[in-house]
Amino acid sequence: MNPDLDRQPGRNRWPHPGDNPLVRARKIAHMYRARLRALDADACDDADRTAQQFGETWAVPKVVTADDDDLLDPADAADFLCTSTANIRRLRLAGRLNGEHTTSGWRYRVADLKDLQQNRPRTGVAQVEA
Hints:
Elements: H1 21-39, H2 41-53, E1 71-72, H3 74-81, H4 85-93, E2 100-102, E3 105-109, H5 110-119
Antiparallel strand pairs: 1-3, 2-3
Helix pairs in contact: 1-2, 3-4
């Protein structure tokens, strides 16, 4: 992706600056999938089967049940936030995400991931002053 594109006049900036091009592409693909699902569930199911046949299981959302106190490894935490494991590490090092160092490596509480997700700044949204 060309970084100069973000500087073009009239072009909105990507709302999650820590995302790499792969994560950005996946988020866009998920947006298209959600819109296809809303318009034609059968066509979406067919596309999901095709993606899975090619081993692209990331394209099909999976339902995961987790309690707020459950600990996720970096890969699952990245999936939860639709980002990369490198960004999970950057968020922890920047103090924006709490992590617990265990004998199996870093782990992240689901409640902390939810808090980060809900408090993530959104661009393009009008701010209302009280």
